[in-house]
């Protein structure tokens, strides 16, 4: 089994339940991926930082509760834990307001991971932590070392435009990091921003030509997901469920797909990859039937029970 190492933000999600009511949950896309894998019986490490405050203590305890290895999770007294207020519309879709300027997560330094062993690992990262702070240098160090030790690299840009004043710089930054990806997961509504292509097929072709890419996954909400390799395409549907909150849906999808890779290995067999994708789709569908992200993500026995009921 490969371990999954996620680097980036771990923060507090204040998620809207009613018009003027918010509930505190643990969040942050890379951390959500680590938790997804751990709840599916995988081995997860999280690399990041929280503030030396009550929010940070809560987040540390949450990762412990979900059996994520926190050896490389640090506490900072120089900045507070980052906060995100998540507002839900009538379709349970989200918008974000961040309090993070800078947050403790952005001040994470590369010295903290000098002894991290990347052998037999999958490294996962997103774009939210690629601004001009020490955490970006930590990404650069981690990715370089991971690639040298044969790690599989997974990138989910997970675009948050309101965190960047200069969107052209954001676009350029994302494209600088696309070259590292063996696995790239992109939401369909992010394609044009990332590729500057309004034509869907042109955008897909551009991404498939990335030098290290093996799998390109396009998630499409309730329309399912599509996986592209250089040789074939696989479409999988979403599962029809009662939607409570879509927070963490994309993170749980890629986390579950990486879990299958970590346990059963990379494959270029279409049938095998189709099973990986169906598994990921079930995990994401179950996640949106509950409130929050980490709490909502299913354990492996819940996924198996759902598969058995569906036949």
From TrEMBL:
InterPro entries: Carboh/pur_kinase_PfkB_CS (IPR002173), PfkB_Carbo_kinase (IPR050306), PfkB_dom (IPR011611), Ribokinase-like (IPR029056). It comes from the Bacteria. Its EC number is 2.7.1.92. Residues 1-298 form the Carbohydrate kinase PfkB domain. It is an enzyme of class 2 (transferase). The keyword Repeat does not apply. The keyword Repressor does not apply. Belongs to the carbohydrate kinase PfkB family. This is 5-dehydro-2-deoxygluconokinase. It comes from Haploplasma axanthum. The lineage of its organism: Bacteria, Bacillati, Mycoplasmatota, Mollicutes, Acholeplasmatales.
């Amino acid at each position: 089994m490969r371990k999954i190492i996620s680097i980036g933000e771990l923060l507090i999600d204040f998620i809207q339940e009613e018009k003027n009511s918010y509930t505190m949950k643990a969040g942050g896309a890379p951390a959500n991926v680590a938790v997804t894998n751990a709840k599916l019986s995988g081995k997860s490490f999280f690399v990041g930082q929280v503030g030396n405050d009550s929010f940070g203590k809560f987040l540390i305890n949450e990762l412990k509760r979900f059996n994520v290895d926190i050896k490389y999770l640090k506490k900072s007294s120089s900045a507070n834990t980052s906060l995100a207020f998540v507002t839900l519309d009538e379709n349970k879709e989200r918008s974000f307001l961040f309090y993070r300027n800078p947050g403790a997560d952005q001040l994470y330094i590369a010295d903290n991971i000098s002894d991290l062993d990347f052998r037999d690992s999958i490294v996962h990262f997103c774009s939210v932590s690629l601004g001009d702070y020490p955490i970006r240098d930590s990404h650069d160090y981690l990715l370089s070392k991971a690639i040298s030790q044969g790690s599989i690299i997974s990138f989910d840009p997970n675009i948050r435009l309101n965190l960047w004043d200069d969107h052209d710089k954001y676009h350029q930054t994302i494209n600088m990091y696309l070259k590292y990806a063996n696995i790239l997961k992109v939401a369909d509504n992010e394609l044009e921003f990332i590729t500057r292509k309004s034509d869907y097929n042109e955008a897909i072709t551009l991404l498939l030509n990335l030098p290290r890419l093996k799998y390109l996954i396009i998630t499409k909400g309730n329309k399912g997901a599509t996986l592209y390799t250089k040789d074939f395409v696989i479409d999988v549907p979403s599962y029809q469920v009662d939607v409570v909150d879509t927070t963490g849906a994309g993170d749980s999808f890629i986390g579950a797909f990486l879990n299958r890779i970590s346990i059963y290995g990379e494959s270029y067999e279409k049938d095998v990859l189709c099973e990986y994708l169906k598994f990921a789709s079930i995990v994401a569908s179950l996640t949106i039937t509950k409130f929050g992200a980490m709490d909502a993500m299913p354990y492996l026995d819940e996924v198996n029970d759902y598969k058995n009921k569906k036949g």
